[in-house]
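ugh ok so i messed up the first submission bc i forgot one of the chains. this is the corrected input, ALL of the components this time, i swear. 1109 residues overall. if the numbers dont match what u have on ur side tell me asap before i send this to the collaborators (the ones from the other lab, u know who)
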Amino acid sequence: MNETMLSYRVKDNLIHSLHPLTTLSYVLVITILSLIFYHPIYLAALLLPAALVIVSSGHYKEWSIYLKLSVSLIILIAVLNMVFSREGETILFTLQLLPGMAPLDLSLEALAFAAGMGLRLLVIITAFCLYSQAIDPDRILRAVAGLGKGKTVLAIILATRLFPQFLRDYRRIMEISQCRGVDPYHGNLWQRTGRLKPVISVLFSSSLEQALELAESMYARGYGSGERSQRQADLWHPRDFLILLALIIAFFCGILAYGQGWTAFNYYPRLSWEFSGSSILTLMTLSLAIPSVLNWGCKRSNSFLSKI
Amino acid sequence: MQLRISLISLGLLGLLLLLSIWPGRSLGNWNWGLLAATILTVALAGFFWQFERRRNSIVQLSFIATISSLAALSRVAFVPIAGLQPASFIIMISGYVFGSQTGFLVGAITALVSNFFLGQGPWTPWQMLAWGICGLLAGCLGQALSAFRLLPFVFLCTFSAFLFGWITNISYWSSFVHPLNWSSYLGSCIASFPFDLIHAAGNLAFSLLFGTHFYQLLFRFQRKMSGYSK
Amino acid sequence: MSYSYPDEKEPALKKINLTLNEGEFVLLSGVSGCGKTTLLRAIAGLVPDFHGGHLAGAIYLDRIPLTRIPHRQRLLKTGIVFQEAERQLLMNTVEAEIAFALENLGFPPALIKRRIMEVAAALDLTDCLPQATATLSGGQKQKVVLASILAWEPEILLLDEPTSQLDPVAAEQILNSIRRLNEDSGLTVILAEQRLERCFHLADRVLVMKNGAIACDEQSFDKLSHWAVKNETSCLPPVARLFAGCAFSKIPASIKEGRGVLRSLAPQGDFSPSFSAASPGLGNKLDAERSFEQPVVEVEKVWFRYPEGKEVLKDISFNLKAGEFAVLMGPNGAGKSTILKNLNGLLRPGRGKIKICGRDSKGVPVAELANSIAYLSQNPDDYLFLPTVREEVKFSLQYLAGKDDIDSRSDQVLQRFGLCRLAQLNPRDLSSGERQKVALAAVLASEPRVLLLDEPTRGLDYRHKEELGRILLEMQAEGTAILMVSHDVEFVAEYAAKVIFITDGSLLCSGSKYDMLSSSTFYSPQVTKVFRGIAQGIVTLEQAQELLQRILYHRQEAIPRLAGNAGTGEK
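and heres the new structure output, hopefully the right one now
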């Protein structure tokens, strides 16, 4: 078992060696662009480089789990769109849900819209998969610790650090409760829930007592004694600037295409296949693919990583 | 006073959020998904900013972290019974005892921290807001009642499970569904109804079974906490 | 200076007058609840600043009243380490943990980096810096806490029982690091500690506290031991108690000195044969009577492997009869706790058989096995969740024993454990020693046939240890089989009967404590070490005292006039 329990995994490659804010910017650019794009080709142009980055950083397995989880949501999106959209003109079939109710017309356009939105969902899910897998929560929290007085961030860090300890405590207390003759695995749902009472109470009482000790430890180590300083956070590398530059280009391309109306797509009332701005689209995709290209370069040549 | 300011600001932000997704395009032909996400971010950031500005004791800070971590644990790995989520109950009982602001923070941090372990997604900020509001409502109830009364709390807890579902539904409804109107929103709520129902049943059971006991437990801690001067 | 906590009527510190000098290593001793922690908190400024309450009198730091020094300046001079490392760690990684205090105190980033590097090197933590604190061992965690304090280079280091939750080896390491800091960098150290045998020789000065006041303040061990002989013998380490018990005028502090004294008394010859034959006494007789009985616990060729693949138990076999008191000893990670978990059913052996009361435990749920096996874990807090002590005891009875006469039976149990006075209190408000007693009462309420204990003496002071020993001996006399995991050699030597050595998952040897402990070099009590080469089979303090009396007696008969000259005298 992974002791810290985090979904983040340490891996030795370029994507993982990026500054956490660089990776975060990448995720945000992809997410924002995907939210303003409707055109399936433009959405696919976001999905492709994001997927490349995921795969090249070695997270194919986790990504496939994310994708499987999103299938049910895509089905839900499809159903909702088809049931509630009245604007499509190409009726696939008519559904009589309940006798006496108006029949439902299910249109091809609604299905197409759902497919487009499913693509958008995949883009967002992929971006967040990258966030979960490639950003060390500790590093990102440290990078943003300067916000405000850092109280929120400290509370979050502390909660994250306590988590594995509480999990261990919980397992131990659960065992002890069994040794006292309380069997949480038998009986009906109500009984079993009731039998958790000793376990949860013990965990809470002990943890709250610990909260006081933690506070004392914080005070004894100077928390709140005046202005805080900030230790050196992660270092910026040329690769970070390179990728940030690429992100700016990609974002600009995306906004430009949006402003031109190229990223819109006429789903209703009838699908119309229009596509323009292929050069802008190519530029955007290539810029977004830069991290995976750099990563590929590092795999090819050992000295490449030390140069950037 | 501080609390009131933060409550009002949250209320205003919430109102704006509602306006932005108000069906019927009252704000023109906007991109609803992006707008909702922006306003959500502003709402959360605004609340956290209020917290940063307020003078909190160290004990309060460590309490918020501890209880959020416990709630996150209960969400990730607590119960050998599938489908039940004691996290809502934990957030709400601590909101009830320690007030709206603590309730909101505990809710928001719980969602964020538990997703460090379950995996972050576009749902994270929505869950933060939804659980934050659950904690906040419980805090308001706690302030309105002078002594602990189980029944109103149980009622609110059960209702909040649905509220949680309705708020998190906005996350996909606003970005993936067309048209955005009351009936399609209602549709998404119907789709999530079975899950919300299990959640509500869990909340009902937990608050009925453990409500009084946990109130005493936390109240005892609150008394202990008030002795500390930092 | 006096101090009382908020909501408490009785002051925690009463009229303390104390001057501590720069560079001193002060040992603060006394039973739990005597005010050690509060005194340290007062010196660190945590009371009344953090805890509230009322402080009368004044504390001066370099002749400036503490109340006039701002928080940050005060911290730069004093650092405090508390009991349990797990409950002080705040950050995810070791590096962040050490940096936390430096950031709070506003150190510039470059200096933070340097201090982390230096303190990590000094405490041998360099390799752990990027590690998650959750993955460290208990000893390492305490080291990290120590490092996080030492990083800002305070002049005074206050330590509140920093080793009470650690095993002897890790404790030794921590104490040695502290000693080195005191010697090399002139750090003033004030160490509150209960494990006196391990740190007596480190200190320049010893303070004994009693009921919130300082009862004794001595620089030389000699004077201290004289005070202790008159007032509280049990605050001395066993070797000193041995000689104090025979009224020596000069009492040796360490084993080395003790051996010197003994050698001068008995320069030649081996005294062991006659005594070791006489010593076992009670235990053997009982063993002989019970040899025909069916064992309560039978472990036959048990193998166990965790799902992750590490083989933890290899071919373990042993028996436990009613009224037997056995102890599992061995290094960390030898599989001692795993054996206990196999017995109470939390883990199931991969191969081999475990019979409880003659019945194979295979397939019997844990909760059912709990009827005959009681288990007390290291942490008594894991048992306490109800609002009163009485309900806590009743809880076990409800689940295990028959449903009738719970009230009268719980009263009996409370009486027996001397808990009647505390029956209506919330167990969470009690001291750690009392909490442990409540937990023990709760698990023993159902009158189990077998009692399993995991490190029960951890963090207890000698008074509570004695009481625990007494209760265990009573249970043993009533026919409960006791199996205990312990690192506490002195406790085992005093109370247990049988010792089983485990290493690397297999059984090394087992036998009576007289054979096992006296033949071991590491796992032997102080009195055995003192008598090594002089007499064999000396394990308990009582035995040792008897032997010492005899040696003195012999010597007096042989050369009566010399008795006083060697610096010793007899009653």
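quick check: Chain A has eleven helices and two strands. that seems consistent at least. Residues 15-138+233-307 of chain A form one domain.
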